[in-house]
Amino acid sequence: MKYGIIGASGRMGQEIARLFNKNGHQLVYRKDEKEVDASAEPEIMIDFSLASAFPETLSIIKEKSIPLIIGTTGLNKDNLTELHNLAAEVPVIQSFNFSIGINILSKLISQVNNYLDKSWDLEMTETHHRFKKDKPSGTALMLAELLKQPVEIHAKRLGSEFGEHKIEFASTGELISLKHRAYSREAFSRGVLLSAEAALELEPGFYSFQDILN
Amino acid sequence: MKYGIIGASGRMGQEIARLFNKNGHQLVYRKDEKEVDASAEPEIMIDFSLASAFPETLSIIKEKSIPLIIGTTGLNKDNLTELHNLAAEVPVIQSFNFSIGINILSKLISQVNNYLDKSWDLEMTETHHRFKKDKPSGTALMLAELLKQPVEIHAKRLGSEFGEHKIEFASTGELISLKHRAYSREAFSRGVLLSAEAALELEPGFYSFQDILN
Amino acid sequence: MKYGIIGASGRMGQEIARLFNKNGHQLVYRKDEKEVDASAEPEIMIDFSLASAFPETLSIIKEKSIPLIIGTTGLNKDNLTELHNLAAEVPVIQSFNFSIGINILSKLISQVNNYLDKSWDLEMTETHHRFKKDKPSGTALMLAELLKQPVEIHAKRLGSEFGEHKIEFASTGELISLKHRAYSREAFSRGVLLSAEAALELEPGFYSFQDILN
Amino acid sequence: MKYGIIGASGRMGQEIARLFNKNGHQLVYRKDEKEVDASAEPEIMIDFSLASAFPETLSIIKEKSIPLIIGTTGLNKDNLTELHNLAAEVPVIQSFNFSIGINILSKLISQVNNYLDKSWDLEMTETHHRFKKDKPSGTALMLAELLKQPVEIHAKRLGSEFGEHKIEFASTGELISLKHRAYSREAFSRGVLLSAEAALELEPGFYSFQDILN
């Protein structure tokens, strides 16, 4: 497919281009802040840029009337409302985390929650590289909200660890441990690829990445 | 409740008595091979004995007409058929593994299976104490059957490890790891307790421990 | 050998008796608070009681003039001085942690310290059962002191975990992880056995468990 | 310093150039098979090429009379003898594994060996990415040789795992686990950097990377 990236020079933009090109797709539209480089009309648009550039993304999609896959973080309530409005016209797939593994982990946590009661102990640990600013990670906070009870989040900062999240549930008899580790940004670009390939078949509407996975 | 144990002197029998008594229940019937010690009529019967004693268990249950929770391993196809016949008269709860955690793990594996395709790598590791005869463990073989693809089972024998099973799924972008560790036989006796407490409310029928958990 | 235990009814006392008897030694002297039960003269004395009973231990050893292996926690500076004085007369082996594994781990940490500089990240995690009062554990604090730099100690309380300590060192290129897990009090009783068997051959003097291991 | 790389276009060659340049050193000599690109005389030479190119490396070093750091794998007994001969003239640092972590792990394993006897169980696990051909890894085989007893090596192939090695020692009371994970080739280039910086101060002689670490 012919695709476009808003935020093409960012780390996610570069990784997405790498994976998509490897899978035979063609990057025909690139946008970084005000600079646009277009060689043809894209069939879908991917946005991994900054929340500040969001209004421009809205205009572009309204004009091109193509599916949008957006992973830009920092979108606020109003932005999400605007995305829902846009979704009346085109398929919009929005997520703050396009990793297949983290999304599966979220489902597993909800499952485990149903079986266990308050008598089970709960611990969460997240490990990231030494330069990560958020502590604890946004993903850890998101996973913590899925649990029925408050949980302490142990945050470790070690070397070049790309990102690991672990949740442990324990009774006096046994322990269940669910863990996810992302090796690289490919954990996310693969989810974007899955979404892009699905988008071409979707009716207009607002979809989360979880919806695409199901 | 008043309960009875067939195989009362075995390790599981003793652990079940410990946990049940701690929870306020009374052991009124004990059987070990030919020796019976009964002080009152039990409301339910628990069997963690040997497959060779199975015919006697059938007679006892038919006579007493009470629910049966049976965890005896080594039952063959005919035994299971006889249990199904018995289940026409009383509730029968049968499992080869009464650990809540292992049963949850089984459900999670089936879930993960649905989301992932053959491109994901699969590894399973089981760790047990140095005296464990089965290699790999029966539980590992049971979990392996739940996976859509053949998997290599790495079996480690270390010290006094009671029992740990881990399944890892990996793509080029990320890794998902599901692990269960039993601290002691309490991992199983808690599942038996759950089943016994449920059994008093059940209609005659054959139930697996998975059914009780749901 | 014929041996005696001060604190014989405590959990460590019972575990020590179990392991020593399994190894062919005879328990000929038992003391719990004021109650003494002696059937013969012990060749060595083991003390795993309370710091409040320490003065009585001193008297008993002075009177019997036999080696003392003491693991009683909570001894203060004065108590240790008194032990050093006692050591002029008999061999005294004193430690707050008789686990062979933790003592080896301590040596390994010191080794790793020599090779790595301040540019390496450091994280420590300790996991114990839900009833453990100290947080973080005394052992974690002791291990932390061996490191050249301050380290954050992540303390997890999960089910029936007997005791696990993990130290991770990471540079931007790699990670080294050292971990110890005690399955049960046998981790400590084995170190006491090693010390007791060594004590019979020692000259009067004050020995740490580390000295015995070397 | 001004440095040269034989095998400059290989993955290790590129990583070494990246790290060395980041640390202010200048790449003045590049060789790939028959192609040489030299802008100045190097002060030291690094070789991460193929065993088949080894004779040319020998000639180059003899001619330039500069220190050699060589990590080329697949060198045979004769090659190593020739290196020892060369070491009469210049400092030669040779290793099959320039990771600081793996070398420390080797020392730790030897340490643990001294304290433990044959009653301890031993297990080794190595995990690498799905494309790794050697099974088990060369590093695992090297670490296995350091242990006093034969050990089973469990080899896992998962996704994009760069390289992890774990050794577990267990008695009936406790478990000790030593683990190393390389995040990337930087685990090795850092060891090469350490060696190169040391080489400028060394007398002619044959040095292993372990010697440099001490």
Walk across the major sheet of chain A and give the strand order: 3-2-1-4-5-6-11
CATH structural class of the largest domain in chain A: Alpha Beta
The CATH topology label of the largest domain in chain A is Rossmann fold
Oligomer: homotetramer
Shape of chain A: elongated
Order of helices and strands of chain A: EHEEEHEHEHEHEEEHEH
How would you sum up the major sheet of chain A?
A: 7 strands, mixed
Average predicted local confidence, pLDDT of chain A: 95
Spans of chain A with pLDDT under 50 lasting ≥5 residues?
A: none
Binding site for (S)-2,3,4,5-tetrahydrodipicolinate (chains A, B, C, D): 129, 138-139
Protein name (chains A, B, C, D): 4-hydroxy-tetrahydrodipicolinate reductase
Catalytic activity (chains A, B, C, D): (S)-2,3,4,5-tetrahydrodipicolinate + NADP(+) + H2O = (2S,4S)-4-hydroxy-2,3,4,5-tetrahydrodipicolinate + NADPH + H(+); (S)-2,3,4,5-tetrahydrodipicolinate + NAD(+) + H2O = (2S,4S)-4-hydroxy-2,3,4,5-tetrahydrodipicolinate + NADH + H(+)
Function (chains A, B, C, D): Catalyzes the conversion of 4-hydroxy-tetrahydrodipicolinate (HTPA) to tetrahydrodipicolinate.
Walk me through what this model shows.
The structure is a homotetramer of 214-residue chains. With 214 residues, chain A is an alpha/beta fold. Chain A has two domains: 2-97 and 186-213, Rossmann fold (3-Layer(aba) Sandwich), CATH 3.40.50.720; 100-181, 2-Layer Sandwich (Dihydrodipicolinate Reductase, domain 2). Chain A has seven helices and eleven strands. In chain A, helix 1 (11-22) crosses helix 6 (186-199). The A-B interface holds A 99-101, 104-105, 107-108, 111-112, 115-116, 171-190, 213 and B 99-101, 104-105, 107-108, 111-112, 115-116, 171-190, 213. Chains A, B, C, D: Residues 1-98 form the Dihydrodipicolinate reductase N-terminal domain. Chains A, B, C, D: Its main location: cytoplasm. Chains A, B, C, D: It is an enzyme of class 1 (oxidoreductase). Chains A, B, C, D: Homotetramer.
